[in-house]
From TrEMBL, chains A, B:
It comes from the Bacteria. InterPro entries: HTH_LacI (IPR000843), LacI/GalR-like_sensor (IPR046335), Lambda_DNA-bd_dom_sf (IPR010982), Peripla_BP_I (IPR028082). CDD domains: HTH_LacI. One of its GO terms (molecular function) is DNA binding. It comes from Nonomuraea helvata. This is LacI family DNA-binding transcriptional regulator. Residues 2-56 form the HTH lacI-type domain. Keywords: DNA-binding, Transcription, Transcription regulation.
Length: 338, 338
């Protein structure tokens, strides 16, 4: 087997210099680098990640932890993942998705010595995974926030997003607006932080408007969307608009409203937040969406992690990016209600 | 650091027996296993995957290779992935998704010694990745087929699926049926095998019916679906039904047809194959779908790989499973055309 020593001899450099080039750990003069790369090519030298990991205690592999549900990721979640993967690749890291169901699998990952760092999504307010990561000493970055906002994060700016959605609906004359979001099976406090933050931004906005607030939570599915339409007509029939933060329920909400005799947008305006224009286009009528900054956040998250690994971080990031309004055909003038 | 030897001494067994329990490589009496697990607990022994890999030359990690596109996976592809991940976990393997863009990344994976085996999806008829895997000697399994059907595979039974779709449409009186499928940027021959197999099953079915055939290929998006509606009305206006095998174009096809004055199913029946009932429900009207056996195939694929790794394989699998018809509201009686 060709070794790093063979490469060093052929290129007439030290083994350390070969290692600098292979692991990107130190700058090497372009001409020297070219000579080493030529030697690697000529000798058909293959790096063995396992051997290298033992030698350097680095694998240059990053893992994105995600729950192993058949329904994950949705279209928007997937955009986070792929932009993070591409960002890692550009900086010379391998990037794997690590489906994670339970605590045992987490132990396995942390004890494994396999990855240099971890990216966490769908962060809960009180997230036991974050506690485990802190205790383990393995570098990590969050896309999302816990209650403890001292920890570095990149996240959607839910407060600004909800404010802009409310503002858009107000510009069409709406005042009575309901929020439809995701119902979690987890006990309260263990829900993803975004659910809590969306709800409180909505409640604040309604309070500022002096209007009553109604929060409806349903499962993320067509059936959930139809349930939301029913609950809406029973509990808050005077609402003329809905802010929806539950991507998978969007089609069901429109269809369910229609089945109850309320067409969108004539009788009910709908704005779907934290989703994608692509999904909005699939629905009839095309949804007005607040498109998630998924590509930006995926990249920022992975860059924060790599900066931390490479000691290149000036200060840990605390970055919030709002969604972007993409008008469709699901928002219209508020109807006059008697 | 606590070693495997420490665990063996505390449990009063051989190192080999500890290894059998840790790696699941051999049955160990329950009482002995319990003693070893207690020792692991007491000593807080952590397995190090990298060290273990060097000792055993096995990592018990499997990788699913997939193209690193922002649009991947779709809902159906995701179901494949998650069922494979769950299947791997049940047999004691870690399972990672390895986004793969180019040949260099493939080299890195193959040279790395990091994974015990690889699962490949979106297999092309002539797939350079399969050639690389064969040359590398790394065990792999295919979900999909190359031209060379001698290689083990599990795959959708496209011929039976298309025949059943045609049969369903015929039972509603349709005879003129178009096929709408996916346009690939890859040069011909390098396209995913399913595209070729779907097309040839459709052409055979139309020949058997003595009816003309029209194949329309568009990109997988709402815009692609609208383009299909336009091409259909221009090139094959006498068609009363469409067999669609392009999940992401489904909403655009329905909306585009409506914009051209053809409502589904009154003027045009649509059956969407190799997708999910969940996606069908999102569309208005709800699509009649042939639901992909994604969960079954994901599990069969990962089991075939693990059987191969463990020498438990009687014969390499050649398994085909057709889609299942889930009636919606997008298929109706054939209109009488003048």
């Amino acid at each position: 087997m060709v070794t790093m020593r063979d490469v060093a001899e052929r290129a007439n450099v030290s083994i350390a210099t070969v290692s600098f080039v292979l692991n990107g750990t130190k700058r090497v003069a372009p001409e020297t680098r070219a000579r080493i790369e030529a030697a690697i090519e000529e000798l058909d030298y293959k790096r063995n990640v396992v051997a290298r990991a033992l030698a350097s205690s680095h694998t240059r592999i990053l893992a994105l932890l995600h729950p192993c549900r058949e329904a994950w990721p949705n279209a928007t979640g997937n955009r986070f993942v792929m932009s993070a993967a591409n960002g890692a690749r550009e900086r010379g890291y391998d990037f794997v998705l690590w489906p994670l169901n339970d605590d045992e699998q987490m132990s396995h990952l942390l004890a494994g010595g396999l990855v240099d760092g971890v990216l966490l999504m769908e962060v809960q307010l009180r997230d036991p995974r974050v506690d485990r990561l802190i205790a383990s000493g393995l570098p990590f970055a969050l896309i999302g926030r816990t209650e403890d906002e001292e920890l570095p994060y990149v996240d959607m700016d839910f407060a600004t997003t909800i404010d802009q959605a409310v503002e858009h609906l107000r510009s069409f004359g709406h005042r009575r607006m309901a929020l439809v979001t995701l119902r979690m099976k987890d006990p309260a406090g263990n829900e993803p932080g975004w659910i809590t933050r969306v709800k409180s931004a909505y409640l604040d906005a309604m309070a500022a408007l002096g209007e009553p607030a109604t929060v409806i939570t349903v499962e993320g599915s067509s059936a959930g969307g139809r349930e939301a339409a029913r609950l809406l007509s029973e509990d808050f029939p005077e609402a003329t608009a809905v802010i929806l933060v539950n991507e998978r329920a969007s089609a069901g909400l429109i269809k369910g409203s229609r089945a109850l005799g309320r067409t969108v947008p004539d009788d009910l305006s709908v704005i779907s937040a934290a989703t994608s224009a692509e999904l909005g286009e699939m629905i009839e009528p095309s949804l007005t969406v607040m498109a998630a900054p998924a590509g930006q956040l995926g990249r920022l998250g992975v860059n924060a992690l790599i900066d931390q690994l490479e000691g290149a971080q000036d200060a840990p990031p605390h970055v919030l990016i709002p969604c972007t309004l993409v008008p469709g055909q699901s928002v219209g003038p508020a109807p006059i209600r008697q």
